[in-house]
Amino acid sequence: MVKKNACVFISGYGSNLRSLINSSRNQNFPINIRLVVSNKINAKGILYAKKNSIPYLFINTKKRNFESILLKEIKKYKISLICLAGYMKVISKKFLNDYGKKIINIHPSLLPKFKGLNTFERILKNDEKKTGCTVHYVNEKLDNGKNIVQKSFFISKNDNIKILKEKTQRLEYKAFSEAIIKIYRYN
Ligand code: GRF
Question: What are the pocket residues of ligand 1 if the criterion is a CB atom closer than 6 Å to any ligand atom?
Fold first, then answer.
């Protein structure tokens, strides 16, 4: 199987990046991660790139032309899938158009519910019975593109923000890899 080249965008801890790196060790997994991009210079997730000898790039989003710098790098590595894994920046319409290939994102709720930030607080406040995570295609609106994989669980009486986050993230690792397998199943 010829694997596709993927790039993972992060801003923080990078546990989803770590999980995708693990999945990509399997020769039947459709992608290899060729590049990691972070908009935070001290994102912990960069360590996973370093440890696994994956090239990584810090991108200063305050620079006016940061997206064209990014696109150039992405072209260099022949990236055909961008995975947003805790990347805390909205992708512009121009970038979506100029890149023109698949961009996917993971979000810690059952979209279309609870788009945006502070998800777990809002879920608890709203007395939801169930929650989970969603992997979806990225379009120009926040947390809005077509869903690829969604996984859910029932919220327990004692779940707080920390526990909800842990439970959700455990599902995220599975959902992200499953979504990538699903995308390339027939290609
Ligand atoms: C994940 O929970 C994801 O749903 C959200 O940001 C978090 C990133 O976590 N978009 P990590 O950096 O992968 O550990």
Answer: 10, 12-16, 45, 85-86, 106-108, 169, 172
Beta strands in the chain (DSSP E): 4-10, 31-38, 56-58, 81-84, 102-107, 130-137, 147-154
Q: What pLDDT, on a 0 to 100 scale, did the predictor assign at position 141? A: 87
Provide the whole-model pTM: 0.96
Among protein residues, the one with the nearest Cα to ligand 1's atom 10 is: 86
CA-nearest residue, atom 8 of ligand 1: 86
Query: How many domains is the chain partitioned into structurally?
Result: 1
Note whether 33 and 20 are within 8 A (CB): yes
Instruction: Please give the C-alpha separations between residue 143 and each of 22, 125, 160, in angstroms, as whole numbers.
Output: 25, 20, 23
| Per-residue pLDDT tens over the stretch 126-164 | 999 999 999 999 998 888 999 999 999 999 999 999 999
* Helix %, strand %, coil % of the chain (to 5): 35, 25, 40
Q: Which atom of ligand 1 is nearest to the CA of 85?
A: 13
Q: In this structure, what CATH number is given to the domain that contains residue 168?
A: 3.40.50.170
Q: Name residue, tokens 């590049």.
A: 35
Domain with 162 in it: 4-185
| Average pLDDT along the chain | 96
